[in-house]
Amino acid sequence: MLHVDFKKRLEHFELTVEFELRQEILALIGSSGSGKTTLLNCLAGINQPDQGEISLGSKHFYKDGQKPLKIQKRNVGYLFQDYALFPHWNVERNILSGLSRKADLTHVKELTELLGINALLQKYPHQISGGEKQRVALARALAAKPDILLLDEPFSALDDETRSRCQGELLRIHEVWQIPVIFVTHRKADAETLADRVIRIEKGQMTEQQRT
Questions:
Q1: pTM of the model
Q2: Rounded to an integer, what distance in angstroms lies between the CA atom of residue 9 and that of residue 28?
Q3: From the CB of residue 48, how many other CB atoms can be counted at a distance below 10 Å?
Q4: What is the structure's pLDDT at 163?
């Protein structure tokens, strides 16, 4: 179970969050600048809270009085809003970028087949579409077999048809992997389609929680 209970001071307000998440899909909704991405970054270790606790199972990501767990030891899969693919690496190298040379790649082959990107492996990011980039970035986020998956506005740049297809792929992956998934979205429709739970954040405060 993911346990989140922390505060972090931002420029115009304090981000205060408290929730627990099992192997569910959670949507974070709210206006721009409300603290949603900062929440993801604190889970990933890119930012650190000012006080509180973040833990996943028996692993403490952050706890008052202890040194924060390093990013590489958290085993978090993170799909950034702009996908953050390396432009001079082909798709295959992008997907494998976070793995050691001795890693078992059997699951990576399964991922590329599930996401339908086998034909793209030798192409470069500038040669593929937005939807294909999204699937490549998702494969990279999952390649290290993460214990939790974070997605920041993963569908914002996609047309309706591509968005629907990528959402279906995410649901299939969650069914197979059974890990907590948290995604940020401005679209209520995305939350209703994908999420088991929805949390609204406005100016750093959790104003609403509901199950879909």
A1: 0.90
A2: 19
A3: 13
A4: 83
* Beta carbons within 10 angstroms of residue 152's beta carbon: 21
212 contacts 195 by C-beta, under 8 angstroms: yes
What top-level class would CATH report for the domain 2-211? alpha beta
What is the spatial distance between Cα 111 and Cα 117, in angstroms, rounded to a whole number?
Answer: 9
* Cα–Cα distance for residue pair 90/127, rounded to 1 Å: 10
In which element (H, E) is residue 70 found?
none
Radius of gyration (Cα) for the chain, nearest Å? Answer: 17
Residue with tokens 């192409």, as numbered in its chain: 123
Q: How many angstroms separate the CA atoms of 103 and 145, rounded?
A: 11
Query: Measured between alpha carbons, how far is 125 from 188 in angstroms, rounded to an integer?
Result: 29
Q: Which amino acid is at 189?
A: A
Distance CA 99, CA 102 (A): 8
Q: Encoding tokens for residue 67?
A: 């040194």
- Classify 184 as helix, strand or coil: strand
The chain-wide mean pLDDT, for the chain, equals 91
3-state DSSP helix/strand/coil % of the chain, to nearest 5: 35, 25, 40
| Per-residue tokens: 92 | 């295959």
Q: Could you report the per-residue pLDDT of 146-189, keeping only the tens digit for each? A: 999 999 998 887 788 888 888 888 898 899 889 999 999 988 88
